[in-house]
Design a protein that fits this description.
single chain, mainly alpha, Growth Hormone, Chain: A, membrane, transmembrane transporter activity, transmembrane helix, Lysosomal dipeptide transporter MFSD1, MFSD1
Length: 529
Amino acid sequence: MADNSHNHDLAEKTQTVPVEKSELYMNEELEKNEQEVAPISNGGDTAFANASWQYKTIALVTALLFPLGSHFSASALSAMKAPIKANLHIDNTRYGVLASAVSIINTIFPIAGGVFIDMFGSVWGTLAVNCLIIIGSLLTAVAAKIESFALMVVGRVVFGIGSGLIVTMQESLLSKWFRTEHLSIAIGLQLSISRLSTFLGTLVANPIAEKTGDWVWAFWLSFILCGFSILMNVIYALTVMKLRGNVVISKEEVARLKNKKTFKWRSVFKFPTIYWHIILIEFIFAAVWSSFQTISTELVIVHFNTTSVLAGYTASASQSIPIVATAVLGVFMDYFGHRITVLLISAIFLILSSGLLGWTYVDAIVGMIFYSISLAFGPIAMITSIGMILPSDYIGTGLGIYKSSNNVGTTILDIVVGVIQDNTHNQAYTGVMTLFIVLGGIGFVLIFGLIITQRFYLRNLLQTTRANRTAIMKEVNDKELFYTQQGLDAYTGVNPAIQNYIYVGCFIVCLLVAWVLFFVYAATGGVAA
């Protein structure tokens, strides 16, 4: 009876406190208990966190370069919007279809990828998806060479499958390697490298096309960089094989890994409401961030009446701040917290950026820098928050849904932006930027609400400083270990919440809307009268 009562008390606490294994393991008390935990964390992917810093350094450097070619290719396509429309003879709506071809396929695949990682782990899976990326990049370059819109859509879909999965896998792997310490810093570096790749793609695409006299060369360079990413992926895989060769896997670990292969889908309906609150914010902001990137170069050309090369240089400023700021923010949040405050600042700068670029003629660099600040502050705050409010066994799934919502929103907004621009006088961007301001305002209100709700339901976990956060997460981690040691699910004793069925239902509706819009406008290429 005593044991049952103890289990019941733990279950009740688990309903109101997030369960997680993260960088917040980093405290003295855990170090005292390492010997007790060792039998569970020995072998498999769980050995990554206990690896030497020589292995961790190689893993960090190579894993950070997994999506280098992917991000460069995506931004190069955006920077080349004007040449693409001219050479493929398409309008803005058709270009919206082309841009959303990457995101539409990733409305589903990141979830599957996240579930796969949670169930089995992933090493060679990253190599497989990087192969998809390079195939898609090759098809895109060939399509540009033969001026085929249909082939380019196919190429971007294949590219999109890989590009969506690689980021989810990258973030999950970094979480496994650095879950005991410095996870915020690792994620900050990951976002910095990603933004640097995007920055370079936006910066050099048009100059390369101009210098070579062939607009297709921007896509050939993307193909070459995708090959470099595969090389880094191979080095990473060999490093993991070497590490695993030095690790003795216990019988207990083998049994635990087999048990993990039974994924509990119903546990998604047990995710805390605050997780879905963050997903809604991500749905709105990621759509605006991504759609802005696809139009930024042409926006400068149309609104500020400049050349494509100069516009490319100006638009590249929109990627500048995250290159440095995300790593710094990772350190800041690791010590001082204030994740939601950082997210609120992101919303403010997004609204200011949209207003300046859409309705004034203040130097475009100013608006791009403001957008860049928003892009630096927003994603890292949300990604690290998800890592704290979900159990470690569901982080991959949670990040998969996060990425999927990103792509659902982007797919819808890319097409909506194309329709609005095609129906605006002189195809100006005033209507588009007004839409961005409205969405930014809605997001601001949602973020302000999140500050209040997390204070009551998470004991201010997302805002508090490192000392308080570590104490809370130590308590949470003890509960998770209690269940894990018995082979139980982290959400044992937690009943599915009725409102979660509504949240999942709304997500599915948005997913269907994204697919319908994509196929309607891919087929018709225009707006119904």
